[in-house]
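Postdoc handover notes: sequence design on the structure in folder B. Input tokens:
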């Protein structure tokens, strides 16, 4: 579909959406790693991140972040619990070694 004209600001909108998605994924991953070895269910995790003041859109954003991180192999969600993978835990250890 290269022959379709782009709307003004379309590239900027895509960039800001991707940046927001990356930021949401960082927030989720940091929170899950910080809470480890405690594991929360997804709704509990969203409430933890948003301090209980979640709106429907916020919940959707963080659910999407969990899906993306799961697909990337950094989280897994057996029985609805959001947990970091061994790879995510090891990365966190390497990044925080003195």
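Designed sequence:
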């Amino acid at each position: 579909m290269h022959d379709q004209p782009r709307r003004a600001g379309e590239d900027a909108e895509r960039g800001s959406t991707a940046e927001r998605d990356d930021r949401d994924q960082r927030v989720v991953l940091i929170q899950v790693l910080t809470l480890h070895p405690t594991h929360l269910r997804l709704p509990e995790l969203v409430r933890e991140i948003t301090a209980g003041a979640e709106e429907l859109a916020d919940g959707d954003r963080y659910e999407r972040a969990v899906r993306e991180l799961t697909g990337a192999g950094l989280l897994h969600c057996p029985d609805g619990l959001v947990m970091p993978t061994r790879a995510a835990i090891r990365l966190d250890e390497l990044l925080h070694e003195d």
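Context for whoever picks this up: The mean pLDDT is 85. Don't rerun without checking with the PI first.
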